[in-house]
Fold this sequence. Notes:
CATH topology: Maf protein
Order of helices and strands: EHEHEEEEHHHH
Amino acid sequence: MHVAVGSMNPVKQRAVERTLAEFDAEIVPVGVDSGVSEQPSSVEETVTGAKKRARGALEATDADYGVGLEGGVTRFEYAPGVRLVMWACVTDGEHLEVASGPSLRLPDSVGARLDAGAELGPIMDDRLGTENVAEAEGAAGALTGGLTSRARALSEAVACAFGPFVTTRYEVE
């Protein structure tokens, strides 16, 4: 199985490698534009970015599948605060599947900075005194005390989006 990941971010690549380890997949990162803002601020924008990355990765390679991963922030009507969300898209060029990973509430002070137009990665770096937390544990790892990580959370989204391609329990339409 040859899989193109629409990002050069090593965390996104690790998420796909982790998910597809049992398939002995060849994973190739491809730098593609998400077509959305650096900090997607809705589920719609986050999913749009994941779709564009998946399609772009597939089109740029001879891979069997293109995978797009996008993290964003949003508010949900029935859950308090600003939430971190992660979405994945998988396509084989004919079919396209999207799925979400977990979401978690961000601290109110982080949400306030996001509402003012800042991006999550730099906010978390300031808060943690780090550089490039988005290419390490991510906000998910930092805010769960290591119970999860950005790669693990993204991996769940990838697994759910890949499901219809690797099992006969779906009819992919």
